[in-house]
Structures are given as C-alpha cells and as structure tokens.
From TrEMBL:
<dbReference type="InterPro" id="IPR016167">
    <property type="entry name" value="FAD-bd_PCMH_sub1"/>
</dbReference>
<dbReference type="InterPro" id="IPR005107">
    <property type="entry name" value="CO_DH_flav_C"/>
</dbReference>
<dbReference type="InterPro" id="IPR002346">
    <property type="entry name" value="Mopterin_DH_FAD-bd"/>
</dbReference>
<keyword id="KW-0560">Oxidoreductase</keyword>
<dbReference type="Pfam" id="PF03450">
    <property type="entry name" value="CO_deh_flav_C"/>
</dbReference>
<protein>
    <submittedName>
        <fullName>4-hydroxybenzoyl-CoA reductase, beta subunit</fullName>
    </submittedName>
</protein>
<dbReference type="InterPro" id="IPR036683">
    <property type="entry name" value="CO_DH_flav_C_dom_sf"/>
</dbReference>
<dbReference type="InterPro" id="IPR036318">
    <property type="entry name" value="FAD-bd_PCMH-like_sf"/>
</dbReference>
<dbReference type="InterPro" id="IPR016166">
    <property type="entry name" value="FAD-bd_PCMH"/>
</dbReference>
<feature type="domain" description="FAD-binding PCMH-type">
    <location>
        <begin position="1"/>
        <end position="220"/>
    </location>
</feature>
<dbReference type="InterPro" id="IPR016169">
    <property type="entry name" value="FAD-bd_PCMH_sub2"/>
</dbReference>
<dbReference type="GO" id="GO:0016491">
    <property type="term" value="F:oxidoreductase activity"/>
</dbReference>
<dbReference type="InterPro" id="IPR051312">
    <property type="entry name" value="Diverse_Substr_Oxidored"/>
</dbReference>
<dbReference type="GO" id="GO:0071949">
    <property type="term" value="F:FAD binding"/>
</dbReference>
<dbReference type="Pfam" id="PF00941">
    <property type="entry name" value="FAD_binding_5"/>
</dbReference>
Amino acid sequence: MHPFTYTRVSDTREAIDAGRRGGRYIAGGTTLVDLMRETVEHPAALVDISRLPLREITATERGGLRIGALVTMSEAAAHPEVRTLYPVVSEALELSASAQLRNMASIGGNIMQRTRCTYFRDVTADCNKRDPGSGCAARDGYNRAHAILGTSDSCVATHASDVAVAFAALEASVHLLGPGGERRVPFADFLLKPGDTPQREQAVRRGELITAVEISALPRPLRSGYLKVRDRQSYEFALTSAAVALHIKGGVIHEAKVAAGGVGTVPWKLPEVERHLVGRRPSDALWTTAAEKAAEGARPLAHNRFKVALLRRTVERQLRVVGGMK
C-alpha cells in the first residue's frame, strides 16, 4: 500500500474543499481499501466523510423516496418505506455481498464501486480502466463474467452493483454537491459506458460529493422485485440479474420499468422490453415475447455467449414473478 494522508471531516463544506484539492472520499471503505491494498489505486489523500449528516431516508413531497448517501446497505434494505414502496431495492441490497459488508458499505459508495474484472485488479495485466492506453486483456482472455452490452474496444468489464440495477430500472437520480453548488443527475447519465475513456466511470466532477439517491414517485399499485442469477447462492456477483417494476391496473400494464445487471458495462435499462409490455394484458406469451427483446444489441465474447440466452430467461422469469403469473 502506498503512503497517504487521512483527514476526517465534520461538514460538507470541509469535505468539498478537501475533495477539490484532490482528496478521495471514503466512508465504509469496502471497495477503496481493497483496491489500495492490492495497489490498484493509490490516492495521495483520503477524506473520511462518515460523520457527515447524510444518513436519513425521507419521503419526498411528491411521494418518492430520498436515501442519504451514507445510509448503509443493511439500513436501506430494512427500512419500512423502502420495503413497502420499492421491494426491488430491498431485494437487490439483500442479495449483495455479505451481511458484514452490508453493515459497513454505504449507498453512495455502492454506486461508486469499481468493476470486479480480474484483469482490472491484476496490476500485471493490461487494463485501460486502470492504465489508459495499455489495452484490454479481458477481450482475448478468459471473459466468462464480462459484459455483452455497452462494451467497446477499450473495455468489456461489468458494473458490479446490484442496487444500481434497481435504481436504473426505477429511473432514480443522484444528488451531488460540489464547488459549483448542487445538481441532480438522472441515474441513466450517472454511470458512464466505457467508450474510449473507460477510466471515467461516473459523471462526478472534481470535489463533488454524493448526498443522496432519489427515487421518484411511481403509480400505485406498484409490484417490483429483483432476481439474481449467479454461480453460487451466497456472496457472489451476478452472471445476470433483472430488476422489474410493473403498474398493473384493470388487468392492463400501464407502466413497466425493467433493467438488467451482470451483462452490461453499466446497469442496463431495457426500454424495448418496457415498450412491449405497456398497454397489454399479462400473459405467458407476453412475458416470453417481451423478454426476447432483452438481449438486443448484445456483443458476446468467446466465453460468455451463454449470457444472451440466460439474460432472456432471467428477464422472463422475473416478469412472471412480478406480474403474478409464476
């Protein structure tokens, strides 16, 4: 581990000043500390924000929900309003990591986590995300766990977060506070596809601090849930996952929110699936035809072609579960 300075701040202004000078924010530290220990990352300065007043979950005036950036994963998963209004969020959190990590990791840190790509974490391997311009060892290496959607010649790494898939499906937004003041970024624009700059992963400006994730109000009744498919039942990252939310009234689907994880360089929204569902009555045939659109545009690699079919089956299964036709 490389030498670094450590500062604990007590208010957001102090945090932003330290961030503007190049400090890296740390709260639970469940990702950054690992990367520092493995010498993948070596920040010169750490800014401990764990004492900032960003630990509340509150209802918004319009009926949505605002989750403070320092709320832990376990706190968010257990919160009555999260469980009642957005079960897809609770389920995604409870299927993430271990209980010990969920007790430490924050919501803000979770959506900022870096990829689990083994080549990114192996400092002897070529990785454009870690060392821009060095190449992507995963493209010609063992790439079973890698992305089939949103890839580029520079990077094929997946985004690891489960709850980010739920946030993407629900079209949440991220609240940021920085030297330029406050701003709100739609979740779809917050996590960035690799393109030619895979080292830039989030739309966060220098010195900016995540203060909250907000889920806007959605029509009621709203059924939602999260399905994660992985190699083993516990403490494993997704091969594929599906976050689904459906507003069904009068026997007709009036609104559909669907996203997939484990298959994209970012949590992958599925607008074609959503459009196919809206205005139609739930049926076995509908779930099948909608799910067929889930893998449109996929570019599988040598070892992950199975993800195309697995993604379709995962989306179909979760549509059936949430739609009430298991």
